[in-house]
């Protein structure tokens, strides 16, 4: 497999995880009865659109080289990692602050973890393009 294809596959996987994670619940209230999905907010929509862009770029990379693709993927992935880290911290602060509200019972959802994985895959996709043989 050529290095470009490995980078394309990593970008497709990262983009798919970003899109799926944006639709999954990021948090739930009332012991899971009220799931809050990422796409209900601006941050989730940004992550969803970035996932679509990474997915499309990955599909294009499977067929041909794109000049500047490694820089685009790693830059977008690092920005997404920073965004997801701030969301992750905010969710955990909200859960810690609502501890005295016995009825609310906030829980972190799986979507944040899937988005974190997608951002990480997108950021490191250019590493897969490096050839192992000199």
Explain what you see.
The chain is mainly alpha-helical and 134 residues long. It has one domain (3-61, 68-125). It has 4 helices and 3 strands. A 3-stranded antiparallel sheet has the order 2-1-3. β1 (25-29) and β2 (34-37) form a beta hairpin. The chain is elongated.
Strand content: 5-15%
Principal-axis shape equals: elongated
Low-confidence regions = none
Counting structural domains, the number is 1
**What spatial order of strands do you see in the largest sheet?**
2-1-3
Please work out how many helical segments DSSP would assign.
Answer: 4
Q: What is the H/E order? A: HEEHHEH
Question: Would you kindly provide a brief summary of this structure?
Answer:
The chain has helices at residues 3-23, 42-63, 69-97, 110-124; strands at residues 25-29, 34-37, 107-108. It is mainly alpha-helical and 134 residues long.
């Amino acid at each position: 497999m050529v290095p470009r294809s490995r980078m394309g596959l990593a970008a497709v996987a990262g983009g798919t995880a970003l899109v799926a994670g944006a639709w999954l619940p990021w948090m739930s209230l009332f012991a899971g009865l009220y799931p809050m999905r990422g796409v209900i907010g601006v941050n989730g929509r940004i992550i969803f659109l970035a996932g679509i862009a990474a997915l499309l770029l990955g599909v294009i990379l499977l067929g041909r080289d794109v000049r500047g693709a490694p820089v685009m993927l790693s830059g977008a992935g690092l920005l997404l990692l920073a965004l997801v880290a701030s969301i992750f911290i905010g969710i955990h602060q909200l859960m810690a602050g609502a501890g005295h509200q016995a009825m609310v019972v906030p829980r972190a959802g799986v979507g944040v973890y899937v988005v974190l994985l997608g951002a990480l895959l997108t950021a490191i996709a250019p590493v897969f393009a490096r050839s192992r043989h000199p």
